[in-house]
Automatic annotation (TrEMBL):
This is Palmitoyltransferase PFA4. It comes from Zymoseptoria tritici ST99CH_1E4. The DHHC domain is required for palmitoyltransferase activity. It is a multi-pass membrane protein. The gene is PFA4. One of its GO terms (cellular component) is Golgi apparatus.
Amino acid sequence: MDLPILQRLSPPGVTVLVLFLALSSQWLFHFIDPGPIPREHAYMFDGLVACLLICYWRTCFTDPGKIPKDWHEKTQDSAYGPQKDPSKVAAGQPNRWCRRCEAYKPPRSHHCKTCKRCIQKMDHHCVWTSNCISHITIPHFVRFLFYAVVSMTFLEYFLYLRVSILWSQKSLPSYLGPSVYRLAHLFVLCAVNSLILFALTLLLGRTIWSLSVNTWTIEGWEIERHHTLLRRARVLGGYLEGPDDVKVQIQHQEFPWDVGICRNICQGMGSGNPLAWFWPFASSPSVASGLSFEHNEIDDPSKPWPPPDPDRLFKKVERQPILGDGFTKSWDIDEFKRRQAADISRYTDADDEYVVRRRPFRERLEAVSSQDRERNHYDYDEAAELDDDEYGSDSDQPRARGDWSEDANGEGEEAWRNKEGERLADFGVDEVADFYDEDDVPLAELIRRRKQN
């Protein structure tokens, strides 16, 4: 895994920060009233810090999982889900093809741009752990956040006692109190610990919510995307246009993986034993357990998730036929190579993949002629207002003719943002591979599947 230098420094940097807060504070307490913390409290605090570091290191260095190529065949084996009700396992979910891995990916999997592979139940690629938070690493991540918040709350209490005593003695001469350097040390500890504790408390609350409803950040993005498509379709007659003017009906679908708070937590933590949820050395969930998931059966289990999205349908690059004799340009080989490179760069992304990005929905609305508005009786102004929250009133997306962006470096509909302003790339996902991956199965794979049938 080729990680940026800052991500490589994250694990040692966070470790040094934890040790600074935990050890230097206990040393400082010897010189500030009411003195060092009691021994039993010190043992408890140091134990919490040790649990914090163990869970953090496991979050950093546990492999987020490698999906076997024949995973869809192994899911039929009872060893991959002996306790699951076969009628409730989403075996009927259509398999999605990853063009980067050149393989099918299981439900809830996404291609990580940093790890360069598909990750099971990917939440995000965390820069602070330099690893993917996935089906395999989520239990360690939750335990790390829990022990971090608890241990830092302890430290916040110890710091508060000493700051309150100093404040009560503020009228005394300065030579009777701690030195300026120790006061500065105390101030740094209070500021750093308070800020980090506040941020981690919010993150822990959000993570526990995601765990209880079995909906992680990328899936929350998908749910918001689906609701946006429903609003668009409601204004535009129930259908949205896909590639080549294909009409796609948009129907409401419920998120299929929320099976109840208790089962959601057991699935996310990899165990039904509550004691194991807090044990720093608890085993990681197996790769096999993340190949299929229990379906809540609110909708037909054969319906795909994410729901059909006309903007995600893959469109091949259409080459225009050559007019004339085809030799209207210079025959010089260097000029030919330059023209060839310029032509390829129009449709090639950073991974040398031919991709035609679909223009943002708002731009396509603005490009509709007045005749189309009168003929179809669509209220495009109302539809445009629905998209104001996504792109703003003045979209800064690249302009191009038609439904497809001609600029390979520009951003298309894959850059859609949710209400919090987040796009797939913000979670570490390879946007092009994860957004434009529908129906892009190579011919050789289709032939192989036909032979198996």
